[in-house]
Specification:
The chain is an all-alpha fold. The protein has a domain of 223 residues: Orthogonal Bundle (Endonuclease III, domain 1), CATH 1.10.340. 64% of the residues lie in helices and 0% in strands. The protein has 14 helices and no strands. The protein is globular.
Length: 330
């Protein structure tokens, strides 16, 4: 294990070469070439920041076709430019930076030619570019590399997250610090290819959402191959904790208590729904039954008399049988 401050330049060079070779197997060795004037190079850099090369080319072409010339873009609102670049990430910032660049160049020379920058030294050109409002470190380093061929490691936010995730850049470092850290392990001729491949990985839809993960181990730049293989491996899904199943006793208790609880509610609802009209009907029914009850008693008395007569007849018959005298034989 090695700390970030004690990382050797040889270890940086070895890690960068290893990562370049591994990424070339996935994305190829061909590098894009850009041949644009200084001002247009800066506008393309704004489109490229935090996006893939292909998306930047398409949006830059759309920007040039949507307006009559650069002056029309300069006098347009940020919202209008943002709509034109809506296919890119952070389109609102891109609209603001593009208009800021065009205003700075036009107000300094009343033209849209910025070729004087190519005649300056790297330090002078860097100071000149930093005077432009809202300009990001990525646009500065990209312009210096493309126009003056400076030894610049070109990083933006997505590239920085990928570099931290792979373990070739220490955590809690900004873009300038990370670029300076990697510069010690990359030769001037190697920076463009390394940065392009790192961007390809950072904007790959297969891995784009996984660069927020970090490693708990100490910083070790020589573990870049292991970290890349971990990134390419399928992400393990965490099992959700299963809720405990209810016991049979509880289930039975719920079933038995449900009707008992429902009965009082039903009774209460029936009491509440009783109206005065229904109460009057019930009293009338009681009165009618009370009046009809006496005839019912008479009928019951008559039935008793008939039953006694009927019951006496069998006794008389039985008595006649007992008094009968047998006839004598002759």
């Amino acid at each position: 294990m090695s700390t970030a401050s004690a990382t050797k330049a040889s270890d940086k060079a070895l890690a960068c070469k290893k990562l370049t070779a591994l990424l070339q197997k996935d994305y190829g060795k061909s590098l894009p070439k850009l041949k644009l004037p200084v001002l247009e190079t800066m506008l393309f850099a704004v489109c490229l920041e935090d996006n893939s090369w292909e998306a930047a080319e398409a949006s830059y072409a759309k920007l040039m076709k949507s307006y009559f010339d650069l002056n029309e873009i300069r006098v347009s609102s940020v919202t209008e430019i943002e709509r034109t670049l809506s296919d890119l990430k952070d389109a609102e910032w891109k609209g603001l930076r593009i208009r800021s660049i065009l205003r700075f160049v036009f107000e300094s020379s009343y033209t849209f030619e910025f070729e004087k920058l190519a005649k300056l030294t790297v330090e002078s050109a860097q100071k000149r570019l930093k005077k432009i409002e809202f300009l990001s470190p990525f646009v500065v380093s990209f312009t210096l590399h493309q126009i003056l061929g400076s030894h610049s490691v070109i990083l933006d936010s997505v590239s920085l997250r990928a570099a931290i995730h792979l373990g070739i850049v220490p955590e809690a470092t900004d873009i300038d610090e990370a670029a300076e850290f990697l510069k010690g392990g990359l030769k001037k001729a190697e920076t463009w290819g390394f940065c392009h491949l790192l961007r390809k990985l950072a904007t790959d839809p297969k891995f784009e959402g996984r660069f927020t993960e970090t490693f708990d181990d100490e910083f070790d730049i020589l573990r870049v191959e292991e970290n890349l293989n971990t990134l390419k491996s399928p992400k393990k899904k965490k099992k959700a904790p299963s809720a405990p199943a209810p016991t049979k006793k509880k289930a039975k208790a719920k079933k038995t208590t449900a009707p008992a609880e429902a009965a009082p509610k039903a009774a209460a609802s029936s009491k509440k729904t009783a109206t005065p009209a229904t109460a009057a009907k019930k009293t009338a029914a009681k009165n009618s039954t009370a009046k009809k009850s006496p005839p019912a008693k008479k009928a019951s008395g008559s039935t008793k008399k008939t039953t006694t007569k009927a019951s006496s007849s069998p006794k008389s018959q039985s008595g006649t049988k007992k008094t009968a005298v047998p006839k004598k034989k002759r």
